[in-house]
Design goal:
With about 800 residues, the protein is α+β, with helices and mostly antiparallel strands. The protein is built from 30 helices and 17 strands. The strands form five sheets. It has a six-stranded antiparallel β-sheet, covered by helices on one side. Strands 7, 8, 15, 16 and 17 form a five-stranded antiparallel β-sheet that branches. Strands 9-14 form a two-stranded antiparallel ribbon. A hairpin with a 2-residue loop joins strand 15 (about 545) and strand 16 (about 550-555). Helix 3 packs antiparallel against helix 5 (about 130-150), helix 6 (about 155-180) runs antiparallel to helix 8 (about 215-225) and helix 26 (about 700-720) packs antiparallel against helix 27 (about 725-760). The radius of gyration is 35 Å and the shape is elongated. The protein starts with a strand and ends with a helix.
């Protein structure tokens, strides 16, 4: 009996799906399959054509090529930034070398962990382009400053400059690694994916630290030439250029004003921190950003009882209308069997002859004007022209970020003991979901109304005629459902023999009643003598979870909608219905993972704060200075969210990774400021004078690392290639958040430092410090060990040489 049908662009077809085993290379297997397919095609009849309608390896290859392009372009832009500030081709080359050395060295560590170059690891390496160069920039800039301003020879400057900045660089790098290492141990489904991302980023950062302490100073000592006009105690400096001189004077004036009006800076900082709450409430929240994969799926279900012919007619008509769009290249229509459904949960009854799906392949992204989202909106408008009794769903193609498998949709389950009550409650919830403005294509897995024949046995009459109930059930099972009774062999092939009643006897009420049943008293009796066959309707399928009957409600998110907002609204709907005892409703599928992932991210962020505090407390041998530095983190979050809002992006798991990266980068600037301030105070400078001088001298490396980071992110932000939505969500948050919060952090960190310094002078703090002296002892020991390796080289006060403050 024909129960399935497939059509490719209106012509009959057979679909062959090839899946790779877990852990194997998808791209390599796809290439081998295509190679074998080419050999097989040559032997097929000329009227048979073989087409590859869906190939996941193409998306993977395109995404990796795009990330490779971003990596190279980001490295080039970061190098241009260095040349702009130092105006020296040799220093530019020295710092730029840190990028390929760090990235290539990371491959070795990835190999040890068993990681491959996939979308997530390539994403991590691309994001690290602007980060791995930071350490080299800071060390090189300090060495170059010693050469220019102190008149040291390159060899001496390489040693002295690295020693002075070494502890700050180590603290920034270790605290940045502390951000990504917890990501590698996240739980849940996404934790399995994020492990490779977090640990690859941590590996690259760790390698960059080694490079900045070894390769960068060595190259500086050998290849940097003393600029003209620099004497043994020269006063010429690239920091005195017109552009940077203007920046320096402007920042100095603003810093003086901030130190004189510290209350204003504190109030501004508090206002920014508090704004985090309303911004988080306003911005949308999705599990994953929706990438344009040039694929979408249209699922259709006809009323129960519709035959295969009717379903074929309707779906092929829809497919023909879709092929009229210039953006659509191919349509693959599959009716029944469920093989064509990339998301079995999207439509109930998948596999029945009354349901099917249309896999729509779009032309390449660079060859069409409309986006995948635009085509989906137009497809929904097309389906509205069809009768209301058709249940339809339009969703993006499957895969991470594509939206298939529920990644861009919402799933909710309702479970309970009685199917009738379950249908009543689930229908009530479904009707309210359909009224939500951001929800589209809402559907239920429980479909009542499938035609059926119920056999009611007259047990007394059956006993009188010698007919057992078991015999009735077995006969109906074999004659109507069919049963494999034996096999026969033809050559090397074995075929099943299925016993089943002819169609005219099993497809009508009269035919079934004419069947005969074995009897112990009369040989055989007519089925109509012992049973009553009643036409009725019932559910097309019954789902169970933990022995409880359940109904799955699904809905897609309207373009520009908010997945988390729909989940919250459904929770309110369920709470307002007051389900009877024994019945419960809860999120399911990726909707559950959305909540779990948010929890895991909060745990990762909390662990990152703890690890960063430990590292900073060990370096500064203080409980207060780490707090000063970590206060910059909540200052950056609102600006990152504001950047996402301006770019029309929602918060997703990749935006969460960008937030962690933003944490690590923002505090690097604060570490440079605080560390140098402490060093200058150690040689006798007064606090305010040390704050002013330290922040001026660290302004250039901070600007260099920040602009280099943003430049490295620009290819991700501006890209429109495959995977652009995922890349853009990270790039926008990091680049926008870092750029917008830069000025505030440059002014707020000195103010926070001075306020906490005033706090330490209070008698109450002195008593607390004496009581916690035993706790600070281990930190002091660790800090002493670190300083024993680097030392702290404090140059002569510039104010004594050239009159600058």
């Amino acid at each position: 009996e024909l129960r399935t049908a497939t059509f490719l662009n209106g012509k009959s077809a057979v679909t062959l799906v090839v899946s790779n085993q877990s852990g194997l290379n998808t791209v390599a297997i796809a290439q081998e399959v295509k190679h074998r397919l080419a050999q097989i095609t040559a032997a097929l009849p000329k009227d048979v054509r073989v087409d590859v309608v869906m190939d996941q390896s193409l998306y993977i290859e395109a995404n990796v090529r795009s990330l490779e392009h971003h990596l190279l372009l980001g490295a080039l832009l970061a190098s241009v930034v260095i040349f702009f500030f130092l105006a020296n081709i040799r220093t530019t080359i020295i710092s730029a070398i840190a990028i390929p050395v760090s990235i290539v060295s990371t491959f070795f560590l990835m190999r040890l962990m068993g990681y491959t170059l996939n979308m997530l690891t390539m994403q991590a390496l691309t994001l690290m382009v602007g980060v791995v160069i930071d350490d080299a920039i800071i060390v090189l800039e300090n060495i170059y400053r010693f050469i220019e301003e102190k008149g040291m020879r390159p060899f001496e400057a390489a040693i002295a400059g690295t020693k002075e900045i070494g502890l700050a660089v180590m603290a920034t790098t270790l605290s940045l690694m502390a951000v990504f290492v917890p990501v590698g141990f996240m739980g849940g489904i996404m934790g399995r994916f994020m492990a490779s991302f977090g640990l690859t980023a941590a590996f690259a950062i760790g390698v960059s630290l080694i490079v900045s302490f070894t390769l960068t100073p060595m190259l500086c000592s050998r290849f940097i030439k003393i600029p003209q006009g620099v004497s043994r105690r020269g006063h010429h400096s690239s920091r005195e250029s017109r552009l940077f001189g203007l920046i320096d004077r402007t920042y100095t004036a603003m810093l003086r004003f901030s130190m004189a009006h510290r209350v204003l800076v504190v109030l501004a900082s508090l206002l920014v921190m508090v704004s985090m709450v309303p911004l988080f409430m306003v911005i949308g929240k999705d599990f994953m950003p929706e990438d344009d994969r040039s694929e979408l799926q249209v699922s259709v279900r006809l009323p129960e009882g519709s035959g295969l012919a009717a379903t074929m007619t309707v779906l092929e008509r829809i497919a023909g209308d879709l092929r009229g769009y210039p953006e659509i290249a191919d349509t693959l229509t599959t009716i029944g069997g469920g093989s064509g459904n990339m998301n079995p949960m999207a439509m109930s009854g998948a596999g029945g002859v009354n349901s099917g799906s249309i896999m729509v392949k779009l032309v390449d992204k660079d060859k069409r004007q409309a986006s995948q989202r635009d085509v989906m909106v137009r497809a929904r408008g097309l389906l509205r022209r069809y009768p209301d009794h058709l249940q339809t769903t339009v969703q993006a193609g499957g895969g991470p970020g594509g939206g298939g498998g529920g990644a861009s949709g919402v799933q909710y389950t309702v479970s309970g003991p009685d199917l009738t009550e379950l249908a009543k409650q689930s229908d009530a919830i479904l009707e309210k979901i359909r009224l939500l403005p951001q929800a589209v294509d809402a559907d239920t897995s429980l479909v009542i109304g499938k035609p059926e024949l119920r056999v009611e046995i007259d047990r007394q009459r059956a006993a009188d005629l010698g007919v057992r109930v078991q015999d009735i059930a077995q006969a109906l099972n074999i004659l109507i459902g069919g049963d494999n009774v034996t096999t026969f062999n033809v050559g090397n092939n074995q075929y099943d023999v299925t016993l089943r009643a002819a169609e005219q006897f099993r497809s009508s009420l009269e035919g079934i009643q004419r069947m005969t049943i074995g009897s112990t008293k009369r040989g055989v009796v007519a089925l109509a003598d012992v049973v009553r066959v009643v036409p009725a309707t019932g559910p097309s399928s019954i789902e169970r979870l933990n022995r409880q009957r359940q109904v799955t409600l699904t809905t897609q998110v309207r373009p520009g909608g908010d997945q988390a907002a729909i989940m919250s609204q459904i929770n309110q709907i369920v709470a307002g219905l007051h389900l009877p005892g024994g019945y419960r409703a809860a999120p399911a599928g990726m909707s559950v993972e959305l909540g779990r992932t948010a929890t895991y991210f909060l745990i990762a962020i909390s662990l990152s704060f703890i690890f960063m505090y430990i590292v900073l407390a060990a370096q500064f041998e203080s409980f207060i200075h780490p707090i000063t530095i970590l206060l910059t983190l909540p200052l950056a979050v609102p600006f990152g969210i504001l950047s996402l809002l301006a770019a029309g992006q929602n918060v997703s798991i990749f935006a969460g990774l960008g937030l962690l990266l933003l944490f690590g980068i923002v505090k690097k600037n604060a570490i440079l400021q605080i560390d140098h301030t402490i060093g200058l105070r150690a040689i006798g400078l007064k606090r305010d004078e040390a704050i002013l001088q330290a922040n001026r001298e660290r302004l250039r490396p901070i600007l260099m690392t920040t602009i280099a980071l943003v430049a490295g992110m620009l290819p991700l932000i501006m890209s429109n290639d495959v995977g652009a939505a995922t890349n853009r969500s990270i790039g926008v948050l990091v680049a926008g958040g870092q750029s917008l919060c830069l000025l505030l952090t440059l002014l707020a960190v000195p103010v926070f430092y001075s306020l906490f310094d005033d706090l330490q002078c209070l008698p109450l703090w002195s008593r607390i410090a004496r009581r916690t002296s035993l706790l600070t002892a281990p930190l002091g020991t660790l800090g002493s060990v670190l300083r024993g390796g680097f030392g702290r080289v404090i140059p002569p006060t510039p104010a004594a040489e050239d009159g600058r403050e």
